[in-house]
Structure formats: C-alpha cells, structure tokens
Amino acid sequence: MLDLGCGTGRIADPLALEGHDVLAVDESADMLAEVQHARTLCASIGSLSLDTRFDVVLLLSHLINGTDGEELLEVAAKHVTGRGSVLVQRLEPGRDWRPGAVIQGDVTISLDSIRVSGSIIEATTEYVLGERSWRQPWRMRVIDDAELSAMTKRLGLTIELLDGAWVLLRPAT
After folding, report:
1. Which domain holds residue 57?
2. Residue 145: which region, alpha, beta or left (left: phi > 0; alpha: psi -120 to 50)?
3. Methyltransferase domain location, by residue (predicted)?
4. Which pTM value belongs to this model?
C-alpha cells in the first residue's frame, strides 16, 4: 500500500499493524517522525516517481481538492498496479458548509470562518486536545461528479464506487 500525504501515520500505522506492507509518504519530516509502524519516505507527492507499483494507493485528507489535485491524482494513477485500487477522499459536492464541532476521541475538531464562492471553499479548522490547540486555515475547490469523471478518464482511471466524499478508482482496462 502507498499512503500519499500520510501525515503522522493515522491511517498507515494501523494498516501496517494489520500486516500490510505500507509505504507512508509525506513532505514533512516532522510528521513522518511520528509514524511508528509503516515504512516512510520524505518526499513531495507532486514529484514522486517510484519504481514500485502498489495494489492500493491512498490519496486522503481531501488532497485532491487542493490547487494541485489533478497532479496528485496523476501520481496516484502512476503508482497503482493494473489490477489495483486508488482510494480518494474529496470534499463532498453539495455539502452545506456551516460552523460546527465534532469530538473524535480526545480531540475536538471545529470548523469556522467559512466562505463559499462558487466551487471555492475557504475555512479554518481548529483541533483542540486538552490545553493545546492548532488552527489551520484552508482553501479548496469542490470537484463535482462530472469533473471527477473527466479527470479520472484523462488519467486512465475509472470510477468503481462513488459515495459522497469517498471515491474508489481502478485503472481503465
């Protein structure tokens, strides 16, 4: 498995603990230092070119919705085997963007300062754990189903499953 933009390994490590051979890639050495069980590679996703192909490529955390989303999806397509899968997480089209908070374990995650302009969403996500907090402003573009379909076709991928924010892709045959 290849986990592109793995961050601290929140997905890569549990998969590795389940016995999967996972290569976790991120451009932040500080984030990769937190990965405990998966193999790691410090590299920019956009310029990644490995000799290895993977049965599963993960492109999560809405990376496809950034300014270089199609480029990152192209990297995923180049690294999946002919019978493999690419799992993508995107901003869900048609979502009603409102301030709010959810609790996941010990972390409170809130969304505020939301601005919507057509397909462009700007907001700030705040993560709070005990006395510590971190605010991350972001700007992304919503990719609707038609655009996603055209994009994947250009890259030689087909949509196997489309479920809101979750997209399962396979190489076109």
Report:
1. 2-92+142-171
2. alpha
3. 2-80
4. 0.91
Instruction: Give the tens place of pLDDT for each residue, 113-171.
Output: 999 999 999 999 999 999 999 999 999 999 999 999 999 999 999 999 999 899 999 99
What pLDDT does 110 receive?
Answer: 97
Ramachandran assignment for 3, one of left (phi > 0), alpha (psi -120 to 50 degrees), beta (any other): beta
Whether 120 and 38 share a structural domain: no
- Same domain membership, residue 80 and residue 37: yes
Q: Which residues, listed in sequence order, are joined to residue 126 by a DSSP beta bridge? A: 110, 135
Among the listed residues 4, 53, 64, the one whose alpha carbon sits nearest the alpha carbon of residue 31: 4
Q: State the first-to-last Cα distance of the chain, in angstroms, to the nearest integer.
A: 21
Contact 95, 116 (CB under 8 A): no
